[in-house]
Amino acid sequence: MQRSCYLLLRQRSSGVRHAALQVVGYGTRSGSARCSGDAMSRPMQLLSPAPLGALARRWGAVIALMFLATLFPSTGAGAQVQLTDIAGRAVTLQEPADRIVVGSSMNLEALALAHPDPIALIAGWSGLTAVMDEAQATALRRLHPDIDAIPLVGRMSLDTVSFETIVALEPDAVLLNVYDIGGAAEGASASPMVQHFEAAGIPVIVVDFFVEPLANSTQSLRILGQMLGTEAHVAGFLDFYEGRMAAIIGRLAEADSTLERPAIFMHAHAAGPDCCYSPGQGALDGFIRAAGGHNIGADLLTTPTGQLSLEYVLSRDPDVYVATGGYARGSASGFTLGRNVEEVSVQAGFERLLERPGIAALSAVNEGRAHGIWHDFTHSPLHLVAIEVMARWFHPELFSDLDPRETLAEINARFLAIPLEGAFWIDAAAGPRPHAGAR
Prior knowledge:
The chain is α/β, with parallel strands linked by helices. It contains 14 helices and 21 strands.
């Protein structure tokens, strides 16, 4: 059944008395259109820039709307949206949102799974490089040259956020992560930040792709689909995601009686100067378990992440070493992964990382069971790819037919508005490290 299409125009200035009229997909305010299907998945230029006086602008808009209505017939105003966010709060929007303030740019991957043009949605955020590495930011600038023009509103904490700026932007909603409100979903209603926005009449929607990702990611993505009016697209991705996850879980369950879960040391943000930051209980620990591994960090840390001593890691001598990369600014090794990164440079940086004192002494490193993976897989349901990759590392015989590259290629082709193109995982060269030293 054909869905409704709501048509409005954006006037883009290209000089004092020049303008272009444009319609873009998925929106309801001046400057956008809401439509289903591939036809509206990319911006479409309606009129070339031309001198326009006030009267010409008014009639140009009317004529363009009449023309568009014959192509994409509208069935009326957007329907009211009622949803329950991941914190269990009932939230009402007068219509699907097309202007949102985003608490963190880490939400961009999830938005790109839920919407054909996520950059156009963002009325304000903390900025590209608040949490992203420069390679990631550079890649996004190439895809969206005007991305740095998105207004900055500060990080989503009471001491840095600019409430006045956000209110002035007139967003349809503010999108927050659970960790923006202290890490506990049940505390959302009591959050002073949430109360500030609601007092100003701005709905707040809380999602969680990180604190409890395996429990909350699918529902959080459904919430984004409801918020944006893209439920059908989100449902298609979730069918794909759940089918792939079920295949891994099912195969591990079938092999459970004979399955030996290898001990894993996940060296989080491994390019940093200090060893050894690791997942504890929660967050990335769930991905390790889902891939059939045992996280040695969870045996010691009661928090989602924390610091392990090098002595502890050496004493456990894990079966598999996994370094996460993506934040390599100022690191000695230069180990980084992500968009706009060449595999050749990743390999060189990873080899330098593995030559560090202590790390080089691990059996996993010397016996070819050392790997690296993009840290930002942890911030959206794209963690499916990371789990597939790790399943192959942890149980190469059980998952020999699993092809994470094929999975990522299908996600890029069918679901992801901002494709992942670059280097996202790496394997160490087999054999002893040059400076392994004594343990």
